[in-house]
Amino acid sequence: MGKIAFVFPGQGAQAVGMGKDVYDALPVSRAVFDKGDEVLGFPLSQLVFEGPDSDLKQTVNTQPALLTASVAYLEALHGLGVKPDYVAGHSLGEYSALVAAGVLSYEDAVRLVRLRGRFMEEAVGAMAAVLGAERDALAELCRSISEESGLVELANVNCPGQIVVSGSQAGVESVVQRVKEAGGKRAIPLEVSGPFHSSLMKEAADRLAAELKNITFNAPSVPVVVNVTAAPVSDPEEIRELLIRQVYSPVLWHDSVEWMISEGVDTFVEIGSGSVLTGLIRKIDKSVKLVNINSLESAQTSW
Predict the structure, then answer these.
(1) Which pLDDT band, with edges at 50, 70 and 90, does 193 fall under?
(2) Which residues contact 194 (CB under 8 A, 6 or more apart)?
(3) Which of 93, 151, 224, 302 is the most exposed place for a label (fewest CB within 10 A)?
(4) Which of 29, 45, 70, 91 is catalytic?
(5) Catalytic: 198?
(6) How far is CA 148 from the centre of its chain?
């Protein structure tokens, strides 16, 4: 029998109304949203359920909102007795994975990602999704542009044919204009509030590091495959350090998924809003089973 991985989406998967069905139906899921409101000191649940979308898209709001929705759906799944062999999350989703593995409490995680969002959105820069380029060629193009016109680096290695670059406005614009030099078909500027997962985020990482010093990290109950190394980490102090590095390092999602498949994972369960990760994993390996837990109905019928 194959292994199961729980995976959790990151920024961009949010949607007004996410989690409302499990909030209304399940006390354990309602308790997650209620605790988030209490910890953050404002009605996060109202913003998630009613919007407006423009406010939900603000990084400082998006990050705690997505974490909360993912944990609420996770609680719905817990009631069915399904247990993973590995957990992983895409960027922000790594915090949901750490909650799932018992490394962080939900209360600490939601407080942290609210601050993380605030720190990250204060950096100035841009991002773009590059389609069709080969990784090494795109990395070389980014190095060349960084020397000529402005810093730009690989930020999210998502799946074959989809890599996100991040950096200065000038650097990212140059990649958009010169993408065919790396074999890419086109590059699409992203509507984001900062140059996430680039060296320009090091100040945000330093500020996050100061907050992480005060947080208790537990040994994971299930292996956590982290973005920075695309490998499982079990030492709590190493996880703490990798969360700092994650802010300014590439998200190696493609590598993480391939590593889990090499270890026998044949079922990926995406838990949270949308189906972004399901789409990426399908492009990495069409043979694996994919399950979405993004509604009460999906939680009840998938197993």
Answers:
(1) confident
(2) 59, 120, 121, 122, 123, 124, 125, 200, 201, 204
(3) 302
(4) 91
(5) no
(6) 31
